Amino acid sequence: MDTVHRPTLERSEQERVRLDKLASMQDAGIQAYPPEFRPTATTAGLHDRYANLPAGEDTTDIVRLAGRIVSRRTSGKLCFMDLVDGTHGRIQIFADLGGLGEEAFRRLTEWVDLGDILGVEGHVRRTRRGELSVQPSSWTMLAKALRPLPEKWHGLTDVEVRYRARHLDLITNPEVREAFIKRSRAVSAIRRVLDAEGFLEVETPMLHAIPGGAAARPFLTHHQALDLELHLRISPELYLKRLVVGGLERVYEINRSFRNEGISTRHNPEFTMIEVYQAYADYSDMMTLTERLVAAAATEACGGTRIPCQQHPTGFLDLTPPWPRRTMQAQVDLFLREMGHDPDALDLDARLRILVAQGGTVPREVTPGSVLAALFDCFDSRLLDPVFITDFPVEVSPLAKRHRDDPSLTERFEVFILGRELANAFSELNDPLDQRGRFEAQAAAKASGDEEAHAVDEDYLGALEQGMPPTGGLGIGIDRLAMLLCDAASIRDVILFPLLRPRA
């Protein structure tokens, strides 16, 4: 058997001791990293199965169990260890000299450290103190941990370390594991709803020659073989709508998208969203679909639509449909009245002065619509309970259909919860001439220095000129939805591996 390879990196005293134990195992002909072990039980399953086993009672049931050792105490001829596994349960391993034999017991007490992954085989019992246990007749080292767990394995609290070493975070913080389980369950629930309603899950390119589908600065990359400049997608929207043109009338994609923007508690440059497109539907249909999807996700992940929320004054968040619907103009006027202004008496210059006083961003093109949208951005953080904000100005909605009653507006909505945008949806613009005009306005903005504006996408316009039926489109941020369901204050708490600045 090969001897232990000792890398040249500086090792702590604890790591050197563990390497010595590994060498001792290998000298004894024991594999520290065997190729397989077949458990027959899980910790959670054992607790369920033996919930009524009385204290002090043994069984003759033999089980094979595998997991990580997170606590250990030796007392004479007894060794007590706690083992946790992927079901997030914990069970005591009650090892004794008589049950294991002298050699196996000695090796257990000498070689096993906290963090090691062990397999045990033995019978189930409950100790006199009421602790459900497995009393092993044999044990197997499945993976010798060469680095110790954090000093307090039960709670890794340094946020920076948690994000950089998510594996340790998952090992030591059960609530972190639960958050990512909730996220996965929420996504599964969304899939089930869409699949049941006849939507087809598809995949579209992540490398785009022309970025589009959202106002955002893209990441740039280069394809060597084709000597081609490409961008990581900022949205799959334009490709998904090509599929609607092609006759796939209900499609969705749960996708990774990328935006070259700042990092904050709400933003990560790499993120997950779902986009849904339904032919012969409009933005009203997308509102009811949004409510169904969020309610299903909350019910699956949290057991209902009324969920705990430390960020809400009441301590909970009620996601039960239906949610109120309010136009952007009505919402801004409401904010202005709360500030003591009469919205009907404010001309464009007065609204612009209020925008500047509130620290808002003055639009490049000052129009009633652009100033309305900029004013809304100043106050959207006040929207705590679920609300649809509808009828956005056409200036800030280049892909949305003009409103059927007011051509200066679009049939667009965004959902706000806890002051964060959760979803964005349109009655999709399917007039190719109108779309060309808006693309050309975007291209002009790009030429004048707007890094979030984009060039004219002739391929998409060509598809649109083949005829796209009336279509409703919806995008929901999966990361932000997970923040709601997990009551997380930062998006980094619901992304397994958030982007971080490299260590100095």
Q: What's the average pLDDT?
A: 93
> Could you say what the CATH topology of the largest domain is called?
BirA Bifunctional Protein, domain 2
User: Strand content of the residues, in percent?
Assistant: 15-25%
* CATH class (first level) name of the largest domain: Alpha Beta
| Biggest pleated sheet | 8 strands, mixed
Radius of gyration: 29 Å
Anisotropy-based shape: elongated
The domain tally reads 2
Question: What would you call the quaternary organization?
Answer: single chain
> SS-based structural class?
alpha+beta
Poorly predicted parts? none
Brief summary of the model shown:
By secondary structure, this protein is an alpha+beta fold. The chain has helices spanning 13-27, 43-49, 97-100, 102-111, 159-164, 166-172, 174-196, 237-245, 283-302, 328-338, 348-357, 368-379, 432-447, 458-465, 478-486, and strands at 58-75, 78-84, 90-96, 117-126, 132-143, 200-201, 207-208, 220-223, 228-232, 250-258, 270-279, 306-308, 316-318, 325-327, 387-390, 412-417, 420-427, 471-477.
